[in-house]
Specification:
This protein has strands spanning 3-7, 10-13, 18-25, 33-39, 46-51, 59-61, 69-74, 79-84, 93-100, 107-108, 112-117. It is mostly beta strands. Strands 2, 4, 5, 6, 9, 10 and 11 form a seven-stranded mixed β-sheet that branches. A four-stranded antiparallel β-sheet has the order 1-3-8-7, with no helix packed on it. The model has no long low-confidence stretch (mean pLDDT 94).
Amino acid sequence: QVRLVESGGGVVQAGGSLRLSCAASGQTLSTYAVGWFRQAPGKEREFIASTVSGSVGTTYYADFVKGRFTVSRDNAKNSVALQMNSLKPEDTGVYYCAAKGGSKYDLWGQGTQVTVSS
């Protein structure tokens, strides 16, 4: 069973950057598709970005983060990172990573808080 732990959240001013990390234990994360999601106060959780399993490196992004966020793998560290640049106050929320071995994301981390001040 894979266990996921997010880190790197914090408080940053608008226009700043943060780098989140999703570290896995238990199994090799490269065999899973990994997605990043976020949940703002009072809103439903939403998809941000994902990377497919294996070494191809195909990534997908929600329109509202394209050009600002980048998802990447570090297989040596068995982790997936989310680099967030040009942050906006509306990016505030709890950020989660999730792994998908089959057809749905069924392995989730505990989340990390990101707060962007204006």
